[in-house]
Design goal:
Radius of gyration: 21 Å
Order of helices and strands: EEEEEEEEEEE
Structural class: mainly beta
Number of strands: 11
Number of helices: 0
Helix content: under 10%
Strand order of the largest sheet: 1-2-5-6-7-8-9-10-11
Strand content: over 45%
Shape: extended
Amino acid sequence: NFGLYYHSYEGWYAGLSSTHLPALELELLNFQSARHYYAMGGFRQSEAFGIQELDLDYNAIIRSDMVKFSADINARAIYKLAQGRSVWGGLNYRTSDAIAIMAGLEFDNIAIGYSYDLTVNGLSTVSRGSHEIFLRYCHFLPPVPKTISKNPVRL
């Protein structure tokens, strides 16, 4: 796998990645891994509508294995609470597949979220959608200590 990501100070971001770069084919196990490509980009608008606590995040992702193609378009409103906490809600559209509504809350190093996907393709006659719940924990690494040489080399 390989990927690149760039995040600007103005609020926009973009990334490219690929999975299964060798695209292995294991004939003995009757297994073949296809290479997948992803492109994503977005923009986070701080202090939306002049409200200091409100951020809006818009993004899109495109996926392809060079046979099939799909894309997601997302919009999320983030309301910042005191002490680094926030609540958010948003909408997602996945091409020819689903529309989703999502909500979540973040505090300290933990995020909890919920999403309901409503199927809009041919499966909608047999599927009433799907529920997703997530829990994320981020452990921040301590800063690398500075080392000071006691015997600097002089030229």
